[in-house]
């Protein structure tokens, strides 16, 4: 068996992984350890079309990794553990330190720790996973790929908030952006599709979390998430942009603590909080089609928030714009939302139009990408499947070539 590349995406209580073959980047297996450090933890593995599940006590990320590797051997996913030559970690926040993927050493670990203040729910999980793998597989070559790195090219005219400059600089308050791994993957894929070295487009990464990115000359020029992933468009459970003074109102008038209100914005707003039905787009589209007024309002609000950013970003990308791209769970799979969004665009002298038949092609028939705009559309519209894990694996190999 050949060498393998392991990609790890660790959260505070979960560890998601994908195992790639190093020579052709085909997927060998993937899985997750869930409820790490919490009652009811378990491991799940997808291998050769079947799912392996094991309920097992996992006190921390190290235990999760050790038990996962044991299962690999039991099910002959690898012959020997040292087939894992490279490990690429997804790290949410790299602050201003990292503008690309990087080999992991003690200095990198220290700086990832420093950035935990910006992503307290995410960076500590990645660090725990990195430290666990350094113990378990000390000979594997390790790298980190950051969600923020692609956005380090955003000029200050787009990344700085209109708040007191001295205060903002002292505390590192600016737009860092998220989903950079996906936005970068789509940028590279669009270059390939259009056969160009440099592309200008708006990427709509719309999944449970969602962000738009204005890409100019293949670089991030602006993005809708901000200092945290709470900013921008409305999402599955996150509110997106709101008037910042509502925080004070919520604490004083509604009697909530700041933490409780922030939690409401993160966990019980967006599609879920507005509709009171579900955060899952499939449920809402179904209810919309059954003429449920609540679902109709929620999805129109959702699409309007997207269009407000989209129009803004079409303007930011400017006249050289090559395409609009829909990606992630909703962008790739919901022809309904794509249509609702494009229908609401009404830019003077600019016709953007979908080809109904192409837009309605079943998601299972879309392999890597599909052009869904009509011949009359002045900007081509694509669906492109994102693959963050693949980019992390490819970067790991490139760094150690
Ligand atoms: P992600 O976070 O990228 O995995 O995306 C998750 C979102 O994609 C959820 O809101 C799902 O409801 C949505 N999604 C997945 N498949 C479909 C589908 N066939 N139609 C509509 N939404 C979908």
TrEMBL record:
Amino-acid positions noted as binding ATP in the UniProt annotation, renumbered to this chain: 16, 205-209, 280-282, 329-333
Lineage: Bacteria, Bacillati, Mycoplasmatota, Mycoplasmoidales, Metamycoplasmataceae
Family matches, as PANTHER family: ACETATE KINASE (PTHR21060), ACETATE KINASE-RELATED (PTHR21060:SF15)
Co-factor note (free text): Mg(2+). Can also accept Mn(2+).
Keyword Membrane on entry: no
Cofactor list: Mg(2+); Mn(2+)
Active site: 147 (proton donor/acceptor)
Quaternary structure and partners: Homodimer.
Catalytic reactions on record: acetate + ATP = acetyl phosphate + ADP
Record: residues binding Mg(2+): 9, 388
Compartments it resides in: Cytoplasm
UniProt-recorded name of the protein: Acetate kinase
Keyword entries, A-Z: ATP-binding, Cytoplasm, Kinase, Magnesium, Metal-binding, Nucleotide-binding, Transferase
Enzyme Commission number: 2.7.2.1
InterPro entries: Ac/propionate_kinase, Aliphatic_acid_kin_short-chain, Aliphatic_acid_kinase_CS, ATPase_NBD
UniProt pathway: Metabolic intermediate biosynthesis; acetyl-CoA biosynthesis; acetyl-CoA from acetate: step 1/2
Keyword Metal-binding tagged: yes
MF GO annotations: acetate kinase activity
Positions that bind substrate: 90
Native source species: Mesomycoplasma molare
Gene: ackA
Protein function: Catalyzes the formation of acetyl phosphate from acetate and ATP. Can also catalyze the reverse reaction.
Record-annotated site: Transition state stabilizer: 179, 238
Family of this protein: Belongs to the acetokinase family.
């Amino acid at each position: 068996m050949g060498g393998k590349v392991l990609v790890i995406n660790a959260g505070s209580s979960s560890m998601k992984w994908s195992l790639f073959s190093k020579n052709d980047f085909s997927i060998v297996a993937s899985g997750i350890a869930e409820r790490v450090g919490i009652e009811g933890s378990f491991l799940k593995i997808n291998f050769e079309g079947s799912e392996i599940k094991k309920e097992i006590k996992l006190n921390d990320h190290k235990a999760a990794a050790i038990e996962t590797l044991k299962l690999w051997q039991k099910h002959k996913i690898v012959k020997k553990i040292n087939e894992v030559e490279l490990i690429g970690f997804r790290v949410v926040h790299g602050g201003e330190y990292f503008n690309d993927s990087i080999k992991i050493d003690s200095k990198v670990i220290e700086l990832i720790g420093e950035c935990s203040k910006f992503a307290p729910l995410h960076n500590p999980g990645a660090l725990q996973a990195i430290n666990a793998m350094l113990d378990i597989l000390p000979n594997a070559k390790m790298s980190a790929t950051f969600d923020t790195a692609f956005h380090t090219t955003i000029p200050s005219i787009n990344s700085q908030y209109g708040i007191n400059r001295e205060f903002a600089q002292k505390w590192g308050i600016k737009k860092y952006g998220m989903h950079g791994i996906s936005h970068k993957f789509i940028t590279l894929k669009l270059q390939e599709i259009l056969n160009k070295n440099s592309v200008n487009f708006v990427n709509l990464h719309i999944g449970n979390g969602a962000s738009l990115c204005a890409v100019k000359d293949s670089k991030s020029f602006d993005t809708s998430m901000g200092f945290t992933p709470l900013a921008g468009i409305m999402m599955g459970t996150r509110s997106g942009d709101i008037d910042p003074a509502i925080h004070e109102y919520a604490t004083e008038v509604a009697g909530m603590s700041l933490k409780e209100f922030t939690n409401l914005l993160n966990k019980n707003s967006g599609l879920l909080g507005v509709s009171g039905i579900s955060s899952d787009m499939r449920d809402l589209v179904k209810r919309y089609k059954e003429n449920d007024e609540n679902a109709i309002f929620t999805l129109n609000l959702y699409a309007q928030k997207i269009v407000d950013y989209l129009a803004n970003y079409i303007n930011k990308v400017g006249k050289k714009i090559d395409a609009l791209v829909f990606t992630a769970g909703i962008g790739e799979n919901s022809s309904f939302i794509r249509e609702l969004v494009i229908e609401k665009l009404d830019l003077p002298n600019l016709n953007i139009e979908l080809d109904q038949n192409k837009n309605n092609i079943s998601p299972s028939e879309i392999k890597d990408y599909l052009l869904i705009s009509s011949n009359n559309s002045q900007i081509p519209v694509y669906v492109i499947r994102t693959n963050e894990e693949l980019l992390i694996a490819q970067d790991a190999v490139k760094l150690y070539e």
